[in-house]
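Thread amino acids onto this structure.
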């Protein structure tokens, strides 16, 4: 950003970054009035719906079965340490009690309650941090002008004042960082809609850090991090990869890392999307992300009635069972001494190295040097044979092993 003053994270921000890296696993929630159509969060754009048609949705949105305590308990049951929920997605509809416009869940729906307020209170009660996903992009605000690559069919006049829109956005962010208690951070998305615009990122980031110095700023802009961001994120890819086209193609600097993905293919609720990842796929995703020194933010898209579909809740509870038994090899770790391989990844703490064998059929596994380590064993204490092999080591893997993740733990000398 031109003329950016250099950003010095406050001590509480640096502490929050350490917490974030230790947390390793969070729940992403994409929830909005678009869920009424059961066709994902891009339905307004994909069906070229003008605002005059889209505004018929909020009166039909009445999530009477929403229960913040159940959602937070589900996240905890999955072993998740934080929740990132959409305060506003690209349709501009605020899922919280904003005073900046009537285009929000309290004023425009029969529900009339503020689910983010209830979620914030429940997160505090149950010891989970809450982050807000806030879309830069806006398909309904008249001052989001010039229009970007998307939202062209909304029927807005070809006029507007982009700085007035940014003032509106900063006012809503002020509400989110003032009225909902301590917030884990703000997760931006949608910069990519107008890459050449002056988004005033430095001004917005400074506002966030002034209101809550510990709040972590992340931006899913799909390019390398800008000054003022506290973590680097990747979407549908492990760090440094960009196979899905939504990420920067490299890890820059030493910011905390997070990657995000879905359980099926949809972010917002899509009743037809049955392309579900298995529990094994999802656990290995958590582990592989940890091997890259990254968090994994796993998404649910709740239904319009406020419930989360059973295919998701079953998987989340199964993941939680695995995390309960094996979490020490993920939580509080950093990327291990050997960079990720196809066969698996390594993670480490100050005293231990964990070798996660995720996809390897043979009995012997050669691994580059793990540093000075000893006492190779499984988590249940069963000894694992290890011998020096060149500059690395050769493991003789146990005959009976866990096809999902055979974890060899070693003590650092
Ligand atoms: O357009 C959004 C999409 O709806 C979803 O929110 C994902 C989540 O990371 N981000 C954008 C696509 O890159």
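Threaded sequence (413 positions):
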């Amino acid at each position: 950003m031109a003329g950016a003053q250099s950003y010095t994270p406050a001590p509480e921000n640096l502490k929050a970054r350490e917490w974030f890296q230790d947390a390793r696993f969070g729940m992403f929630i994409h929830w909005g009035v678009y869920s009424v159509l059961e066709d994902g969060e891009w339905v307004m754009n994909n069906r070229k719906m003008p605002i005059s048609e889209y505004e018929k949705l909020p009166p039909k949105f009445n999530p009477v079965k929403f229960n913040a305590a159940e959602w937070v308990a589900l996240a905890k049951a999955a072993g998740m340490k934080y929740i990132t929920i959409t305060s506003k997605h690209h349709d501009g509809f605020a899922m919280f009690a904003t005073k900046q416009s009537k285009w929000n869940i309290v004023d425009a729906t029969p529900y009339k309650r503020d689910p983010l307020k209830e979620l914030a209170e429940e997160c505090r009660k149950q010891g989970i941090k809450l982050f807000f996903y806030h879309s830069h992009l806006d398909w309904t605000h008249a001052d989001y002008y010039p229009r970007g690559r998307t939202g062209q069919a909304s029927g807005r006049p070809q006029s507007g004042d982009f700085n007035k829109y940014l003032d509106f956005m900063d006012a809503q962010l002020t509400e989110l960082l003032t009225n909902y208690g301590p917030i884990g951070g703000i997760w931006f998305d949608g910069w990519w809609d107008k890459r050449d615009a002056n988004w005033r990122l430095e001004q917005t980031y400074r506002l966030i850090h002034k209101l809550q110095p510990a709040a972590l700023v992340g931006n899913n802009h799909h390019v390398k991090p800008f000054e003022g961001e506290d973590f680097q994120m990747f979407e549908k890819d492990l760090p440094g990869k960009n196979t899905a086209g939504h990420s920067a193609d490299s890890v820059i600097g030493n910011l905390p890392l997070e990657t995000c993905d879905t359980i099926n293919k949809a972010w917002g609720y899509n009743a037809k999307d049955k392309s579900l990842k298995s529990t094994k796929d999802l656990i290995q995703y958590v582990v592989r992300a940890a091997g890259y020194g990254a968090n994994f933010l796993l998404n649910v898209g709740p239904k319009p009635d406020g419930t989360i579909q059973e295919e998701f809740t079953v998987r989340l509870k199964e993941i939680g069972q695995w995390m309960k038994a094996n979490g020490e090899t993920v939580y509080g770790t950093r990327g291990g001494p050997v960079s990720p391989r196809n066969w698996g990844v390594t993670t480490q703490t100050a005293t231990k190295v964990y070798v996660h064998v995720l996809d390897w059929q043979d009995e012997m596994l050669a691994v580059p040097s793990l540093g000075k380590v000893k006492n190779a064993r499984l988590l249940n204490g069963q000894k694992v044979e290890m011998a020096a092999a060149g500059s690395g080591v050769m493991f003789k893997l146990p005959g009976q092993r866990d096809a999902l993740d055979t974890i060899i733990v070693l003590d650092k000398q």
